[in-house]
């Protein structure tokens, strides 16, 4: 089968098309003929050696996958050859989704909603589960809450805005000038151009902050949280942010997304109901994975995918 591999860490140019043996499903696994694979910032960080989840190369990147079940291993219940599935298997271990075939534990994929094509379905799992687990599982967001979502036009952010709205929250979002209208179109109640306005001055008090930036940015975000509120951080907050949160009576949750079939099914229900739309900024052929990574570095709206 064709797959994208790399012999060393580095820039997008290290990604190479190669021939590899197709994997075979083990007990409890399904073999997926990949129709599309999502491209995420974590992929680029691993490729560059900044986040060594997979150890030393060679390895095959990719966790987001959508495709068709090709074969079913012993004990892999709930699926049959021909079923269309999507998911984020094995994270943070290797899933090798940048390939024509990939295996997954049957418990870590879900049936693909008919409302989503393969490109949209492949773009959804990692970013969508990050948003879902941050807002719902850790953040306990409920109807009527005020939530501030930073970087709201990005892969995770644009889904977080829609999930929060579907849950009945009042959404305040930050975005760069060229993306304000896009974020507003997602349903955000208030959109703050962070280059011209200080969100601390205009956001008001909120119940939850969803922060993909971490570091000192988390410290600033604490200033808009009410006592008893929660800061959900996707990257490590500063030590000062941790101590300040404790002193202010704010719960700080540092999350790492995990495979979650129930979460996938919830995202699928929202997509089927028309309450969640995945914005795919651009699709690339498998052999153009390097170009896809270079495009991702420009911080486009929404998601980037490889379409096979």
Tell me the layout of helices and strands.
Elements: E1 2-5, E2 16-19, E3 29-39, H1 41-47, E4 65-72, E5 84-87, E6 101-105, E7 109-111, H2 118-123, H3 125-138, E8 146-149, H4 155-166, E9 170-175, H5 180-185, E10 190-193, H6 199-202, E11 206-211, H7 216-221, E12 225-233, H8 239-248, E13 251-254, H9 261-272, E14 280-285, H10 289-296, E15 303-307
Parallel strand pairs: 8-9, 8-11, 9-10, 11-12, 12-13, 14-15
Antiparallel strand pairs: 1-2, 3-4, 3-6, 3-15, 4-5, 5-7
Helix pairs in contact: 3-4
Describe the model.
This protein is an alpha/beta fold. It is about 30% helix and about 25% strand. It has helices at about 40-45, 120-125, 125-140, 155-165, 180-185, 200, 215-220, 240-250, 260-270, 290-295, and strands at about 1-5, 15-20, 30-40, 65-70, 85, 100-105, 110, 145-150, 170-175, 190-195, 205-210, 225-235, 250-255, 280-285, 305. Strands 3, 4, 5, 6, 7, 14 and 15 form a seven-stranded mixed β-sheet that branches. Strands 10-9-8-11-12-13 form a six-stranded parallel β-sheet, with helices on both faces. A two-stranded antiparallel sheet has the order 1-2. α3 packs across α4. The radius of gyration is 19 Å and the shape is globular. The chain starts with a strand and ends with a strand.
Describe, in short, the structure shown:
By secondary structure, the protein is an alpha/beta fold.
The main sheet comes to: 7 strands, mixed
* Rg, alpha carbons: 19 Å
Helix content: 25-40%
* Count of β-strands: 15
> Percent of residues in beta strands?
25-35%
Unreliable stretches:
none
The geometry reads as globular
Distance between the termini: 12 Å
Q: How many H/I helices? A: 10
What order do the helices and strands follow? EEEHEEEEHHEHEHEHEHEHEHEHE
Mean pLDDT: 97
- Helix/strand structural class: alpha/beta
